[in-house]
Amino acid sequence: METVQDLVHVLADKHGRTRESLLPILQDIVEERRYLSKEVMVDVARELDISAADVFGVATFYTFLDTVERGKYVIRVCKTISCSMKGKGDVLATIEEMLKIKPGETTPDKKFSLLETNCIGWCHKAPAILINDTPYTELTPEKVTEILREYIKK
Amino acid sequence: MINLSINGLLVEVPEGTTILEAAKKLNFRIPTLCNHDDLCVAGNCRVCVIEQLGARTLTAACATPVSEGMQILTNSLKVRAARKHIIELLLSEHNADCTKCYKNGKCELQNLANEFSVGDHLFLDLIDLKDYTIDKFSPSIQKDDSKCIRCQRCVRTCEELQGVNALTVAYKGEHQKISTFEDLSMAEVICTSCGQCVNRCPTGALTERTYLDEVWDAILDPEKHVVVQTAPAVRVGLGEELGLDAGNRVTGKMVAALKRLGFNSVLDTDFSADLTIMEEGTELLMRLKKVLVDKDESVALPMTTSCSPGWVKFIEHAFPEYLPNVSTCKSPQQMFGALAKTYFAKVRNLDPKNIVSVSIMPCTAKKYEANRPEMRSSGFKDVDFVLTTRELSRMIRQAGINFNKLEEDKYDSIMGVSTGAGVIFGATGGVMEAALRTAYELVTGREVPFENLNIEPVRGMEGVRKASIMIEDCKPEWKFLEGVELKCVVAHGLVNARKVMQDLKDGKLDVHFIEIMACPGGCLGGGGQPIPTNEEIRRKRAEAIYEEDMSMEYRKSHENPEIVAIYRDFLGEPLGHKSHQLLHTHYKERDRY
What we know:
The complex is a heterodimer of chains A (154) and B (593).
Chain A: H1 4-15, H2 22-33, H3 38-48, H4 52-61, E1 73-78, H5 81-85, H6 88-99, E2 112-117, E3 129-131, E4 134-136, H7 141-153
Parallel strand pairs in A: 1-2
Antiparallel strand pairs in A: 1-3, 3-4
Helix pairs in contact in A: 1-2, 1-3, 3-4, 6-7
Chain B: E1 2-6, E2 9-13, H1 19-25, E3 49-52, E4 59-60, E5 71-73, H2 77-92, H3 108-115, E6 134-135, E7 141-144, H4 153-161, E8 168-170, E9 177-179, H5 196-200, E10 206-208, H6 212-219, E11 225-230, H7 238-241, H8 251-261, E12 265-268, H9 269-292, E13 303-304, H10 309-318, H11 332-347, E14 355-361, H12 365-370, E15 385-388, H13 389-398, H14 420-423, H15 430-444, E16 464-470, E17 485-492, H16 494-505, E18 513-517, H17 535-551, H18 561-571, H19 577-583
Parallel strand pairs in B: 1-5, 11-12, 11-14, 13-18, 14-15, 17-18
Antiparallel strand pairs in B: 1-2, 3-4, 3-5, 6-7, 7-10, 8-9, 16-17
Helix pairs in contact in B: 9-11, 9-15
């Protein structure tokens, strides 16, 4: 398996080493590794020759750039008003019950993390969740149970 | 030119002027918090909002350039109400435990709260909901997030003036905070301890670590002999903390005050600045000899100065491959400390274990420097406690001394006599000038060829300055320097230091000697100097330093009779065995990120 340094190096080759490259590099790392560890942030700082604090500032600003370890599948439940009105509470309760975790937590096998998110733009098909980058919409407890079963099998 | 009216008065200002500056021209002060003369516009605190007739919303005066025909109101009912709300909102997220705050009475937020008669809390106090700890791990700087109003002056200072970026804005919205990498302690990151952020923090969020109680304890302990040294830049700054305008020289009054405070020996860092010149000047000449004559490739040139502990820590982090280029001389503070518990103890017949060595510095990094493990060559901690100029003014106030009425007094001896060359260490370019005054004369037997010994090309506030001096008609032992054009660079502010080092790395800089001071303006603009600071204030302090230089009996370090005596009676010769033991040090590579 490629090391974190190798990954950062490859991404810097791909996106460039200017300050503007920071965000795409961080996004790609999150896609590969689910989150930005302390070590990876230092590696990015070294690769772009900027301070690690700068990397940390950008990483913590964006909700979708996680700086704490997450599971293989990050479930984000939309917490904004349209989804709330269309039964997000039941969907969330179902997920919590199935995975035995609360928002902000990760399962002990590091397979799932559960988070709440601000609006993800699926209000017309509320309630909605994201699992990694895939949206699932017009959910009911039954539908979300079925979806999660598929992921548990993976 | 642009014409506009402010509060009904007409004013004409150049294009690009901000409303804030235009109002200043008419003697209207618009309150500010995030704005700072030394930094770029941020426009995030909003207390400078003003009303522009015809505009739908209020505008931030600091961030808005004037335009033709603008009609501005800086004190309308709408403005007053908005400003008061903004201050109240800032206070709702601020730990307003003012009576217990180190910045009590010197806090810009507190002043505004007073000005706008903020009384009953309109907004809920949020601060209790947040779980803050105070970072006290650095010996130099204390960071208390509960006092932070997120104006980001510190972040801009660390980036724009120092190019260090140890601080950043992390998280967002209600969770936003000023943070180091991973919110580590300031002591664990690339912070150079320069304290420029402390100089610009409007509240008590960033302050120096204070050692006042420890110093009072030592003074009041009859067993202890407390020696105090005062850095060059303190004498041109201290007055500002005690009611005088910038640019006042208060050397004699300061000495009188220190004696009244109860220090047993009041001595001068300027003496050890002269000593630094002897050691560092000789080191430069020896390095030149080794490179030019002996062709010794292990000797690094150009040589850089090492007086500024912020600079030393910066190069240890950022350019460790150039550590062999840094002069091995300790800073004047540490040379003084090492001698206080050896030479001074011996001459004055004191037991070094009963000597407490205190220094008054314009600097926060000096606190860190005194705590470096290398700084114990006397067998004890060479400098026990470092106080800033601001802390000294506090001691003077605590002791009830009417500073401005004091009769001028003189430093004690030994280690109290100094020269003009020692005092100009306090200004950017000063070490270079002092070194050239001595080295040129040592090599040629003649004074430097500048009127009144004033080497103007190395003076001023330009970020990077270059100068050169032709060496001709050398004494026989320095023949190898005949016809050599000695080339020098001076830089101040670490952002300029980085430029110089990068140029050196890229092979774009061909010089022999580099002077770098971590702080803008040199030590006179140091992180321990009076607040506020801006370029005008720093210029005035610099003028005062050069006046002090001109007023001195001796202007060249090697003519200082106490320097002559210490080499005769104690050290032997510059770079000699004893010097190596007491006055020189080594450096350590640190993480770059």
